[in-house]
Structure formats: C-alpha cells, structure tokens
Design a protein that fits this description.
This protein is α/β, with parallel strands linked by helices. It contains four helices and seven strands, in the order βββααβαβαββ. The chain is 23% helix and 15% strand. Helix 3 packs parallel to helix 4. The longest helix has 14 residues.
Length: 221
C-alpha cells in the first residue's frame, strides 16, 4: 500500500495525504506540516531512494524531498495497528490546506478554504457511513476563531450527509483523551500531547463520549 497526495502547490498547500487501503479512516488535523516532503505512490521506491542517500527517512532536506513526516507515521501506527477496528489505511485531511510547521503562523484565507472544502466534497462523493478521527489538538483555536468555525462548516456542510462516526486518540497513561482545553489530542509524540505507543482509537458513541461535557462540540451530533 502506498502513500499518495493531492497538492495544489507542494511547497505551500496540500489538500490530502492518503495511505491506500480497503478500510480507511479519515483523519482531521488543523493543517499539513512542511516536515513531509513530496509524495510518491510507491512507498517501497521512497524507502530505497532514502536509503541510497544514506540519511534518515524522517530527515527532510535539500537531498531528501521524500522524507516521511513523523506525525504521519504516528497516525499510520495508531490507525492500522488498532486491532479493535481493523483499519488498513487512512486519508489525512485538514481544516486549512496551508502548509506550515507552526500553526500559529496560519492566516485566514477564505479562497483556499473554499478550495479545501471542494476537495473534501470530492473525496467523500460516493462514501457512506464514514469514520473520522479528530486529531487536531489545541491548534484548532477557540470557538470564536476562524479555524474552529471552518471546521464547523466542514462538519455541517460536508461530513453530516455521510453519516459520520467520530473517534479520538486515547492514551491509557493519561486521565483523559482530551487536552486541558477540551480538544481531541494531536498524534504527535512531542509536546504538548506526549502520546505514548500504547495510544489507541476511541469511538465516540452513546455514553462513551468524552466530548459531551463540552457544549462547543454539540455541532458534531
């Protein structure tokens, strides 16, 4: 199974990053990082290419445009190694398509947002009963901010017609699967999430809904 992408401008924008599979989980982050370089549909070729350069696959530089973003690899691990749900692939989508490793540098761009929503609509065109992992952490911002409102639009306009089931990441070493601000945790191994390798998927259903205590997530119902 390979990795494929949908890029409007590979240095500045990315609409989708996908690991092919028969049963895929749709993953929502805030924005794509610059840590991931170019995308190739043949992952074996990428590995061989990186090995020929004698450098780490995780190291992106002028001689390694095919580096694999560590966060993407964490997503792959949590999604495909969870025995409860048997996902064998994922589609990484974002609230904002602008590429940056510093979400605080994101700027509101209604035109790019419209393009992003058009792409999401296209990706979900013939899908029913989709599974969605919420994995944006606190980078989504507050309820009055543009990123949070963009996501509400995506949910109400694009996701609800496909009867979505939502998931969050649960780390058994932590008291809760949400941040202190009440947001689903980001998959990064670094600060502030610090998710361990024991992290797994938690389906949001019935009484098993940690988001229910926060009214800001009522629009997911």
């Amino acid at each position: 199974m390979g990795f494929i992408g949908d890029e409007f401008d590979s240095d500045n924008c990315r609409f989708k990053f996908e690991m092919e599979g028969k049963k895929q989980l749709y993953v929502f982050g805030v924005n794509p990082s610059t840590a991931q370089g170019k995308v190739d549909s043949n992952l074996d070729w990428v590995h061989n290419y990186v090995q020929s350069l004698k450098c780490s696959q995780k190291l992106k530089g002028v001689n390694n445009n095919y580096a694999i973003d560590p966060t993407i690899m964490r997503v792959k691990k949590f999604v495909t190694e969870d025995e409860n749900y048997k996902f064998d692939g994922f589609v990484m989508l974002n609230i904002c398509a602008q590429r940056t490793s510093k979400p605080k540098d994101l700027v509101q761009n209604d035109n790019l947002s419209a393009q992003n929503k058009d792409r999401i609509k296209l990706y979900l065109n013939d899908k029913e009963n989709i599974d969605i992992l919420l994995a944006f952490g606190d980078a989504i911002g507050g309820v009055t901010g543009w990123k949070f409102n963009y996501f509400k639009e995506i949910v109400n306009e694009l996701l609800k017609p496909h009867n979505p089931t939502y998931y969050v990441l649960e780390d058994p070493t932590k008291e809760t699967c949400l941040t202190k601000k009440g947001n689903p945790r980001h998959p990064s191994p670094g600060k502030p999430s610090h998710l361990t390798d024991a992290t797994h998927l938690l389906k949001i259903e019935g009484e098993n809904n940690p988001l229910a205590k926060y009214t800001k997530w009522d629009f997911l119902k």
